[in-house]
Design brief:
Elements lengths: L2 E2 L2 H21 L5 E7 L3 H17 L2 E7 L5 H12 L6 E4 L9 H7 L11 H9 L7 H13 L7 E5 L6 H10 L3 E5 L6 H5 L4 E4 L17 E4 L3 E2 L5 E2 L4 H4 L5 E2 L6 H21 L2
Parallel strand pairs: 1-11, 2-3, 2-4, 5-6, 5-7, 7-8, 8-11
Antiparallel strand pairs: 9-10
This protein binds nicotinamide-adenine-dinucleotide.
């Protein structure tokens, strides 16, 4: 039976530690604050934003929410970001993605001051991750690294296979594994004979966005399997990218969906916000 990597519990522990850290920082006059901007009515985004607000409360982090209507222009959004870039009480800025189609995501990301970019999507922060000298780590891949640590498996020298090459998960995930001396393979939609690659993995990270895509027979006996996927099924239930029933019989450790990577992402956002308060204080 595979060890269950309970992100819910690990994230609660991290948030408790952050609350203590935040109290100490406040005593020194450093006040972490997060601004979350959401444009439009996407229901999944609304849930994510609510979770982020709640996490701020749990960690003693000041937060501001800007819920803008769907028809907000790019100029209006950029103006708000500029205002927040200069706002003293705000150390971290997050624009919930996706933004409506008439707004250019890249322009929005690049408008955020890199020192307040707690999602670590700005090219400056992406570059810093590449060279291994960074303030902020993208939240989901950082959460995955915490769960791998929780498995007790040392990444160094291990075969690590990441399925998915998106800018927010797959690519930074591969870099973080590499920084911990893993031997990393990135697989994607054009990869040939995927199962042959995934079956080599001591550590397998699935970030594909296809429900139950990775089956038990694609997994090496005893592997650490991290399921980043969040797929909403027709019955409204959440489903991962890994077929849990077959995978847990083979894996050494595995994350559930929900309750695995999801809560870790939010905890890592809180960590970045606290870090941002220190980074902004020292500039
Ligand atoms: P994406 O759609 O940007 O990328 C999906 C990746 O999967 C692509 O790089 C593509 O090459 C690869 N892919 C598609 N079909 C494939 C195939 N047949 N074989 C191999 N690779 C294939 O998605 P994303 O933003 O990286 O998100 C991936 C999943 O993770 C989604 O389910 C998303 O909801 C979830 N997600 C979860 C969190 C979290 O907090 N837990 C955060 C971000 C994303």
């Amino acid at each position: 039976m595979a060890k269950l990597l309970m992100g819910k519990e690990v994230s609660a522990r991290i948030k408790n530690e952050l609350r203590e850290e935040t109290e100490k920082l406040k005593a020194r006059g450093i006040n972490p604050g997060l601004a979350v901007i959401i444009v439009g009515e996407d229901p999944a985004s609304q849930v994510y934003v609510r979770n982020k607000e709640r996490a701020c409360e749990e960690c003693g982090i000041y937060s501001e929410k800007y819920a803008l209507p769907e028809e907000t222009t790019q100029e209006e959004l950029l103006r708000l970001i500029d205002e927040l870039n200069h706002k003293e009480c705000i150390s971290g800025i997050l624009v919930q993605l996706p933004v409506p189609k008439h707004i250019d995501e890249k322009t929005v990301i690049e408008a955020i001051d890199p020192k307040k970019d707690v999602d670590a999507f700005h090219p400056v922060n992406v570059g810093k991750i590449m060279v291994g000298n960074y303030d902020f780590v993208p939240c989901t891949p950082a959460g995955v690294m915490e769960l791998i640590k929780e498995s007790g498996v040392d990444v160094s020298g291990k075969e690590c296979v990441v399925v998915g090459r998106s800018n927010i998960v797959g690519k930074p995930q591969a870099m973080l594994l590499l920084h911990q001396n893993g031997t990393v393979t990135i697989c994607h939609s054009r990869t040939k004979d995927l199962a042959e690659k995934t079956k080599r993995a001591d550590i397998l990270v699935a970030a594909v966005g296809i429900p139950n895509f990775i089956k038990g027979d694609m997994i090496k006996e005893g592997a650490v399997v991290i399921d980043v996927g969040i797929n909403r099924m027709p019955d409204k239930k959440l489903c991962g990218d890994v077929e849990f029933e077959t995978a847990e019989k083979v894996a050494g450790a595995i994350t559930p969906v929900p309750g695995g990577v999801g809560p870790m992402t939010v905890a890592m956002l809180m960590k970045n916000t606290v870090r941002a308060a220190m980074v902004n204080k020292s500039r």
